[in-house]
Amino acid sequence: MTLSYWCILIAGLMPVFTIAVAKYGRRDFDNAEPRAWLDKQTGVRRRADYAHRNHFEAFPFFAAAVLVAQQVGAAQGQIDSAALVFIAARILYTVLYLTDKPSARSAVWIIGYLSVIALFVIAARA
């Protein structure tokens, strides 16, 4: 399995981490209506939920880009490098989201987004 495929797995697990942060330690968590409960949260819990949602939004575009690049036989080193940039950006994005640094978070989000576009460019040049 290639490094970029491992990155797809890591990206798929990121929402689990952030939702755990949102829910951790709260005895009043309502598993019958988790979204309504999460909507009432504030501070780091709310930001963790928002990061959780954003991970789900970013995942399909990234996974598709890796799969397309792999399918067309693009250079594996380039695919892996772009995938690692995406994962690093998403990890930093999460830290910046949880620590309430919106401007830096947005800049890092752009880096992650550009890494996905780079994957499609890499595929197009193969």
UniProtKB/TrEMBL annotation:
One protein family per Pfam: MAPEG
Localization in the cell: Membrane
Main location class: membrane
UniProt keyword annotation of Signal present: no
Superkingdom of this protein's organism: Bacteria
Gene3D superfamilies in the cross-refs: Membrane associated eicosanoid/glutathione metabolism-like domain
InterPro entries: MAPEG-like_dom_sf, Membr-assoc_MAPEG
Listed transmembrane segments: 6-25, 56-75, 81-99, 106-124
Keywords of this entry: Membrane, Transmembrane, Transmembrane helix
Name assigned to this protein: MAPEG family protein
Organism for this UniProt entry: Herbaspirillum huttiense subsp. lycopersici
